[in-house]
From TrEMBL:
<dbReference type="InterPro" id="IPR001932">
    <property type="entry name" value="PPM-type_phosphatase-like_dom"/>
</dbReference>
<feature type="domain" description="GAF">
    <location>
        <begin position="391"/>
        <end position="555"/>
    </location>
</feature>
<dbReference type="InterPro" id="IPR052016">
    <property type="entry name" value="Bact_Sigma-Reg"/>
</dbReference>
<keyword id="KW-0597">Phosphoprotein</keyword>
<keyword id="KW-0472">Membrane</keyword>
<dbReference type="InterPro" id="IPR003018">
    <property type="entry name" value="GAF"/>
</dbReference>
<keyword id="KW-0378">Hydrolase</keyword>
<keyword id="KW-0812">Transmembrane</keyword>
<keyword id="KW-1003">Cell membrane</keyword>
<keyword id="KW-0808">Transferase</keyword>
<feature type="region of interest" description="Disordered">
    <location>
        <begin position="1"/>
        <end position="51"/>
    </location>
</feature>
<keyword id="KW-0418">Kinase</keyword>
<dbReference type="InterPro" id="IPR033463">
    <property type="entry name" value="sCache_3"/>
</dbReference>
<dbReference type="InterPro" id="IPR036890">
    <property type="entry name" value="HATPase_C_sf"/>
</dbReference>
<dbReference type="InterPro" id="IPR035965">
    <property type="entry name" value="PAS-like_dom_sf"/>
</dbReference>
<dbReference type="Pfam" id="PF13185">
    <property type="entry name" value="GAF_2"/>
</dbReference>
<keyword id="KW-0902">Two-component regulatory system</keyword>
Amino acid sequence: MVRLPGRTGPRSSHPPSGRRLEHAPGPARRARERAEHSRSAAGGSTRPRSALRGRSVAGQVFVLQVVIVLLLVVAAVVALVLQVRHDTTAEARNRSLAVAETFANAPGTREALAAPDPTAILQPRAEAAREATHVDFVVVMNTDGVRYTHPVPDRIGKKFVGDIGPAVRGGTVVEEVDGTIGRLVQAVVPVKAPDGTVEGLVAAGITTRNVGGLADRQLPVVLGAAGVGLALATAGTALVSRRLLRQTHGLGPGEMTRMYEHHDAVLHSVREGVIIVGEEGRLLLANDEAHRLLDLPEDAERHSVRDLGLDPATAELLASGRVVTDELHPVGDRLLAVNQRPTDLDGGPSGSVATLRDSTELRALSGRAELARERLSLLYDAGVSVGTTLDVTRTAQELADVAMPRFADFVTVDLYDAVLRGEDPEPGAALRRTAVSGVRDDAPLYAAGRQFRFVESSPQGAALRTRRAVLEPRLETAAGWRAQDPERTARIVAHGIHTLITVPVRAGALVLGLVTFWRSEEPEPFDTEELALAEELVARAAVAIDNARRYTREHGMAVTLQRSLLPRTLPEQSALDIAYRYLPAQAGVGGDWFDVLPLSGARVALVVGDVVGHGLHAAATMGRLRTAVHNFSALDLPPDELLGLLDELVGRIDQDEPADGPGAPVIGATCLYAIYDPVARRCVVARAGHPPPAVIAPDGAVAFADVPAGPPLGLGGLPFETAELELPEGSRLVLYTDGLVEDRRRDIDTGLDELRAALASAGPSPEETCRAVLDARQPFRPVDDVALLVARTRALAADRVAEWDVPADPAAVGGVRAAVTRRLAEWGLEELAFSTELILSELVTNAIRYGAAPIGVRMLRDRSLICEVFDSGSTSPHLRYAAATDEGGRGLFLVAQLAERWGTRYTAAGKVIWAEQPLP
């Protein structure tokens, strides 16, 4: 509020924003507050009295009210007097006429007139009638007007004063006269004989003062009402005066006038529109500048701002009353900066006030700044959202998505197939549409996955040839572009696509492909500034695409190495039905592996291992461990001894790796090794830091085998223990790595419970079991490698096994040969009788000569014919060349020549020498 000269009230402490400023009270302010308090405490009635003196608006209203009340009182009194006078005359006429007629027609009146002394008879009656009817006189007279009666007896016999002519003629006379007793109304009526002749006259009269008195009774009421009205006017004026003083902050009429004139001059002279909007969005005030800026009609006030034909966004803003600061709104050809604040702060009236400033001259500058900000925002978003993964196709799609629709209506990314494989692109090769993004799905552009070549005359061909971005402002006139595919390009133009920018994706000296930006929604073609933006955008994305390409190449090499180290096919064997799954890690190759190794005596070894870590080093280490397991298993070692040798190997590998070298130590490698014997139906298992195997019984019951948990490989110093499991035929042994049951989101106990549930619901075959386990984890992209091996046990039938105990006597060899020949005949293998007899003869003879009792022979018919000789000795035979003079040493040589494979394995009670022959 503007402070005007002569104002005595305190100045408002509200800043323009509407927030109350808090200041420490100074001496002047404290003195002013004390004075105000003293006035309010000691002069509570001062303001009403000053208001009544007429110097304020309230006083002027009070004077006006007093004048009006006095005028109303005077008018009421005059009207009352006139009404009373009229009513008194009418009442006097009616009463005098009624009394005269009643007395004239009363019984005996006519007879008394004919009596010798009418006065004697009529005087008492007339006085009685006068007193009863409260009239001033009742006079009976003859037709000559001589009185027979009168209230004053000495006037009897005298002539009646008044007009009696009409009455003598039979009529009635009512008249007002000024008599000796004052202003009166008298009526004269005839006394008629039966034949209608007038025999006498009766006059009755009453003064108006006797009829009146109504004015005397009503005038006090009128004056009292006037007094009450004056009292109410005084009280109302005092209340209005107090309210006006509060609302005007003590300003008088002169001050209010000056303030209004000043504010009105300021309001309409400023070059900023001012609009005040009240409740329900009605326009209360708009200055001249607001009328000009918004093109408001002359009668805009009191109308809703939504009905004034304003821009919808501007009308909604003004009607909403929300707080805004320098919010830009286009209105016609102007750009208005709008500031709006509510007016109901600190108990003010509800509504809002808005100021409008014409910012049209800043539109071009702000538009360029906004365009630059949007472009910077686009480049920033591209840097954040493009390249979130190391997948080439995903990165290309992220580039297309970030540029549509903020920069182009359609975006296509075309890359060489070699780039998608992680290789260096070949110039001149076909491109493949890798990513497409658009505002609509019906655009006639090449679909994703389509392979094609661009002709030399097309903008894309020129970009590939020159390695520079190409802008084609008008596609409908570009003949070289139409040569690419006349039918399709015609449909593209008909679809509304009218301009394009194509930018080569460059990574150093390589061109990986093209990114093409198409526009259809905006009528303006691309310009050179947008060409520069497109080049910058693609240049940033090219780094991410090239990184993804390089990663794809490295990942492919690692996967190739890893898969080359894993078993490609499973060996043939009869002890187990096997199915497996291997899932590489989401982020790269790892060190998980598995193996199925046939052993002597129809036994099969199952191996599952895991090298902690990812990458080429983990894959290479996995290959070394797998090779070591192959070699150690050829020695027919028990699981615990094999793990001990593997533990020493991992320890040596760790020692060979430098701490700061490219390869990390292999600490944390785990392994599980199991040997299944189909003859005994038993499985011996040992594990080094690996999860325990699951066993599914033939009836479907699932249990995790209680196998002692040895330390991970490479720690050394601790022995490994084995567990022997008895597996009925049809049991399923499930081996897996920890990537299947453990990750960052769940612990291993939860994973084992989920695995148990999946195995319990799996089908009976190993393949169905693998499928059920992985389906239970869908969608499943492991962060670690997953190896899963399921083996269903078989048993070697008793009729395929033959066993004999052999005494430690060379003569017993003949009996063994005979028994073997008979069994081979039963099996239909007579063709192998000679070689088998020779092999067993040599092996049994060696056991008798060099071994120790007890001695046994076992023959198995499996995929091959297996001959085994047991003894309790610990010496192992060696194949050697016998000299010409040697008596022995040729037996094992003959065995090696006749058998396909042979070897020695040690048991807790001795050793077994075995030999295998292929079946015919």
